[in-house]
Amino acid sequence: MKASMVAITGVGETEYVRASQNSLMHMLAEASRKAITDSGLKISDIDGVIGNRNNHSTDDLCFNLGITQQVFTAVTDVAGGTATTGAALQLAQLAIDAGLAKYILIPYGISCSAPGGPYMFHGREPLKGDLEMPVGYYGQPSYFAAMTNRYRYEYGLTDEELASVALTHRAWATLNPDAQKNQPMDYDEYLKSPMISTPLRAADCCLMTDGAGAYIVTSTERARDLPHATVTVAGLGIGTNPWPQSMVLTQNPNLLNLPGRKSAADAYKMADMSPDDLDLAQIYDCFSISAILQSEMLGLCEKGQGAKFYHAGHGMPGGKMPINTSGGHMSGGYVPGINLLIEAVRQLRGDRGTAQVPDAKVCAVAGLGGNSHSTTILTRS
Amino acid sequence: MGIPVFPPRFDTDLLKPFYEGLEKGELRMSACSTCGEFHWYPPEILHCHPEAKIDWRTISPEGVIYSFTTVTRSLLPGDHRDEVPFTVILVESDDVPNARIPSIFMAREGQEAECGMRVRLSPVQAGEHILPAFEAID
Ligand SMILES: [Zn+2]
């Protein structure tokens, strides 16, 4: 992708809770209104909306927000983190460069408390209904547990190293009053967390969250006239692999080979940067193993060293590479990808109070989404 | 150890030959009727020969565990608390590397699954239906 001329100028979030009284549409609309206001804009300024295949359609959303003007619309056709932290920004840049929109709203929400929970996404797959559910291989914790055991076999992984991911993200969450789980956790507390699917405990899994986030994208030129410091999309890369959602978690020849190396290489190239330029990172932590693998793919450490990198404390508050500074998906809230991107923007604005990474100027956001992966590098101009 | 009880859904008949094979103690895998290439899981369309049909070929009942997990909290719809723990293994038959069959590990006393462990097919009954299961080869 050519050099980006787009910036994120507004962010908004609902509260993140285990079970909300509000519908998904209510949460999407609330986060959207907050992002528009944060951007110094009005509903009537929005002329683009990018949704996602797993959320409400953009026409329903526009109607509920009172957007009556002509809007450019598009939908990201990838899952979770890739959609909200990569693909949506890519579409926004295309639309803005083409002159199709000036101020684009990108919302995303989730309702894990809905019937069937987050698992039915997989349960609807006929192949899983025939081949995986009968043997009890069902639910994301089991899929990522098998990846974890394979990682342990190939590279070695102690229980303490595995735990260090959850402990790192929790340490950040204690600095975030809005985090869903922000009470301190040490290794003894971690060991009390119930085992779900060996070796993953509840503490190794993302939270069950109801909530939504939203952000506004415009050109870097227009961003200068808006209230906040400009946060620019300096680099963006997307990688895919050739396995559909129904097969990627069993049939990928190397289950640990997420398409993150391609996305990171493309993002660094576009930004003309290397991992050495990063001040902090937000990494899609649906499970501890996902964060371990992506920390390696981002180039924070060598292949097979991700868990040791965490265990050395590098991602902790005060560490050399702060990771998931709002608590991430495991302690902050699970609103796939979007709350990680919003945290990156807040850090680069210097708005994060006790959790602020000093002099944060460059932040990578790694977004896993099933058979896809995005790396986005945000900078404060 | 327990056994999950959750029958195959069979939205279509696509996977029935796989289970019919298990009833006979055979491990079967889907392949292209024109060129014989294995396609696992069975796809709706065989991209090598779009006009071909799926052939079910009997393959080696011996193979290796690619990875595993012991499920201590079943997330299957409904109440399955009495069925845990059980160990799910992803097995690669010696005949078709990289094609993974989700299965149950039939552990002998004190035995635990491991990546790289050699296993042999040993289907197990779960209520009214049969499941792919494997036991370690000594
Ligand atoms: Zn063929």
CATH architecture of chain A: 3-Layer(aba) Sandwich
Q: What is the strand tally of chain A? A: 11
Shape of chain B, please? globular
Q: Gap between N and C termini of chain B, in Å?
A: 20 Å
In which order are the strands of the major sheet of chain A placed? 3-2-4-7-1-8-11-10-9
How confident is the prediction overall: mean pLDDT of chain B?
97
Q: Main sheet of chain B: which strands, in order across?
A: 3-4-5-9-6
What is the name of the CATH superfamily of chain A? Thiolase/Chalcone synthase
Bound molecules: zinc ion
User: How far is the first residue's CA from the last residue's CA of chain A?
Assistant: 20 Å
Mean pLDDT value of chain A: 96
What order do the helices and strands of chain A follow? Answer: EHEHEHEHHHHHEEEHEHHEHHHHEE
Most residues in contact, chain pair and counts: A-B, 39 and 45 residues
Proportion in helices of chain B: under 10%
β content of chain A, as a range?
A: 15-25%
CATH fold naming of chain A: Peroxisomal Thiolase, Chain A, domain 1
Topology of helices and strands:
The complex is a heterodimer of chains A (381) and B (138).
Chain A: E1 6-13, H1 24-38, E2 48-52, H2 58-65, E3 72-76, H3 80-97, E4 104-111, H4 120-123, H5 126-131, H6 140-155, H7 159-173, H8 187-192, E5 195-197, E6 200-201, E7 210-219, H9 220-223, E8 231-240, H10 248-251, H11 260-271, E9 280-283, H12 288-297, H13 306-311, H14 328-332, H15 338-349, E10 362-369, E11 372-380
Parallel strand pairs in A: 2-3, 2-4, 9-10
Antiparallel strand pairs in A: 1-7, 1-8, 4-7, 5-6, 8-11, 10-11
Helix pairs in contact in A: 7-12
Chain B: H1 16-23, E1 27-32, E2 54-59, E3 62-71, E4 86-93, E5 100-105, E6 118-121, E7 124-126, E8 129-131, E9 133-136
Parallel strand pairs in B: 5-9
Antiparallel strand pairs in B: 1-2, 3-4, 3-6, 4-5, 6-9, 7-8
The complex binds zinc ion.
Zinc ion is lined by residues 32, 34-35, 37, 46, 48-49, 52 of chain B.
